[in-house]
Amino acid sequence: MGLIAVVYRDKHNLPFDLDKEGAEIDDRTGAVFFRDPERKRLFPRETRQATRIKLGTTYDIVEITKELGPFLGAAESILTDRVLYDLSHSGDTVDVKDLQSLETELLSLKEKLGARASKLAMRFIEDMLTLVKAAMEQHKPIVFV
After folding, report:
1. Count of H helices and E strands in the chain?
2. Rounded CA gap, 9 and 18, in Å?
3. What would the pLDDT profile of 92-113 be if each residue is shown by its tens digit?
4. Global pTM?
């Protein structure tokens, strides 16, 4: 078990015609899905996702939270409130309108940690920045699955 995040492709970036193939889109998450099992096999989730990253195991997320906590402080934080608040949370999102703030938070955290950061924390921050970049490019939220 762990924390996995996905950014779905914008319909204009899919390798197939959405309407022609009978795909549907979840308006909240941007997930593209098929009701027809044959179409689902023909276009596996990898073709419908811009990126999918396992941010860490349950243990990893506990350790990352411990390490980053003192740097995040008590102030409101997208990272604390939407990403690290639970060890695994499926269906939650970081909305498009919050991506710039999350990116700023991550870059600030990266700077504060500097060379003191563990490999685990640095990988987490880099993975989160990858998700933010993909979400900005696709104009889609980051979705936890």
Report:
1. 7, 6
2. 11
3. 999 999 999 999 999 999 999 9
4. 0.93
